[in-house]
Specification:
- It is a single chain.
- The chain is built from three helices and 50 strands.
- Among the domains are: 139 residues, Sandwich (Immunoglobulin-like); 83 residues, Sandwich (Immunoglobulin-like), CATH 2.60.40; 82 residues, Carboxypeptidase-like, regulatory domain (Immunoglobulin-like); 85 residues, Roll (Pdz3 Domain), CATH 2.30.42.
- By secondary structure, the chain is mainly β.
Length: 625
Amino acid sequence: MLKKARPVALALCVVALVIGVLWKARPSRSTNAVSVAPSASAGPRGARPRASWGGFRGGGLSEGVAQRTESDRLGRLSGSVISSGSGRPIAGAVLTFVGPDGARAIETGAEGRFEFQPQRPGVHEIVSITKSGFFPLSNELGASVLRFEGRAGVGVSGVVLRLDPEVLYQGRVVDAKGNPVAASRVHIVGGDELELEAEGFSADHVSDDHGRFEFRAPDGALLEARHQAHGLGRARLDASAQISHAVEITLVPGPSDAAAAIRGRVVDSAGEPRADVAVIARLEAENPARGVGPPPGRGRSDEQGKFALEGLAAGKYTLLAADGTSAPAVARGVVAGGPEVTLVLAAGATLEGKVTDRESGGAIAAFSVILSERRGPLAVDTVRAVAVFDAEGHYTVERLRHGRYLLEVAAKGYAASAAREIEIAGDTSADVGLLRGATLVGVVRDAKTHAPLEGAKVSSEGRGGGGEGAQQLLPVAVSDAGGRFELSGLPPGQRSIFVAASRHHARVIAVVVDEKLSPIVVELTPTEPGEAPRIELLGIGAVLAAKDDAMLIGKVVAGGGAAEAGLAPGDAILAVDGESVVTLGFEGTIQRIRGPEGTSVSLLVRRGDGGAPGPVVVVRRRIKA
């Protein structure tokens, strides 16, 4: 299962502030299904999709193997639900399935085990997984990220689904001089840009006399603080916040400029108005790496199909309208305060295919399908992401707008497929073969005591993506009681591995994945009392994002090579050691920029204040950010 993620702006690649991999009516206590009477809201026609965008949900790629069953019965889906934090099983987690036989709820047993036996053939979606003390995994009907195909005689077993444990964060609101600000109103938007009240969480808080507040929120959540005497400030629960369990919001002087609106209509392909359709607007940042953008504007269409998104800052926006039964409508470059916009929902097309092991030719029973659209030579937006459990390796993705897409597939233990460009002008078929990836084994331990660290998160960095359904195709592992981990599915080449553990500074280490991949020992430095955890890595000390034909600098870190060389926010990197960033690609550029401490890299830089591009030599430094 993949993390469900969705920043609409192009994904940040943190060269000095690393992108870490981010994790995320009860029936009687048994593993038996409890039937729920189907209703108008139980099927796709009655769904109210949330049109979510941003953040991360769920866990890493799931295991799953085909299993033969009695030929006269539909195959079952079986496995376990575990904590993404500890890897331990979760008893009493409730999984809700919706399919041809209606809605059914199943509760995991003492070992976190579940078994689902469909009553009718067809696609069954896991629309939610809930358990007290964990953030729920929830997906809209007709747009579920988890799907199981019920087929006679075969099923899928060994499935592992993950829930993120609730984390209590310490927040603090300060002014531009670092002084605490009392009575600030803090609003929290969920990691997938949902209003948290819908999931039972408190979205609104007020800072105390010391500027402090406590809250719980999913990874990637966006916080916005306001005070009438100071203006507003924003922060996101990024990798650094997730390690420290603390976040600080700095209020920017001056009033908010959120006074513009976007108005328009939602119609179907025949021009008829569509009521009760979710519409959201996300600001298109000039420099996606520069800072945290505003939360999206949101609304729903009325009986005439009209919508109004109020209180927007000036600028250009991307609009998304979705109803769960049609291909989502998207409009880009919409100017706040400009002419009304018409969003057209169409039936869309279907993409289907089969995923197999390229060496054996056998079907892969558990995998994820990612579809993205290019937003320039470097940047892409993820359009759809579906985790599939199917004994025959078959997948189907419905309701796709016509156009060109990049298709990627990932499975546990396999290297993710290279992005493949496909044209969808109608129903389309695309089969994918995967090769086994390498496995990195190692131990995580305390740098001072050399004691093993249990529960350390070990993951491969990768390209994030903006869009309607952004995902991370990243291997993830959690260390056991002996500090041991196995990170499987690594493709060949230089990779950056992110390692983090509670009450320790995190590290990013470089690994060359080849046939001689040796075990590693990662030592994490413990934090001192009162010290906030930081992230240690080797690089130039800059936050980068892909835009057009360049990697834009959004921030430089004091003491890093980029600051030393005079690079500044707004500068654009066009080439690395003589090779274009467009040729290298997003991940290739990052890996080429990183390197051994004390070595240098030559960058071709176009300055943000104009002028012809020129070379800049930057020394790589060891940085703690």
